[in-house]
Amino acid sequence: LSPRGEKILDVIAIAGGARFPAYESFVQMTRGGRTEKVLLQRIVQSPGENIYVRPGDQIYVMRSPQTFSVLGSAGRVNQYPFETTEVTVAEAVARGGGFLDTTSDPGALFVFRFEPPHVVRRYRPDYEPGRATPVPVAYRINLRNGDGYFQAKAMPVQDKDVVLATNADGAQLLKLLAIVRGITAAVGDIKGTAVTRN
Length: 198
Hints:
disordered C terminus; alpha+beta; 5-stranded mixed β-sheet; 6 helices; single chain
């Protein structure tokens, strides 16, 4: 370190820079027995995160691609990498192929994630966590209303989120009718074959 001092991004640049994009690279710093890890993109975007490095600090830059999953009644159920700095819920649904016309319920789009207790208390002031671990939370977005589209465009997806497109109320009935139709068609084919052979 020079007498004027270097910040985290300076040290990373001196060491040759990050090998992978900032949105999938994490910086882990150990100082005095305490270790913290933060997304490199966050350090780039927030100057306050770009702190001065002290003698003895250990800095490790690692690649950890952020992903989200789209499940349920979507066109393409899969796990997707972010491949960009930020992905909104609307973009996540689009990547997942959108809603299936015959089975999806746009009025019940869910986003499942773990939130820290202080975030949960923002929505539920009466919430008292038993311990300070992340809390499982389900957010519901109603895309049948115009507000729902703006909420989906404004809400960023977080690493390891699950976006669930739910089935419409009549979807199970449609599946049952398809099964019954398949059975009756097979029986009809057997009867037709039997008549032809006689």
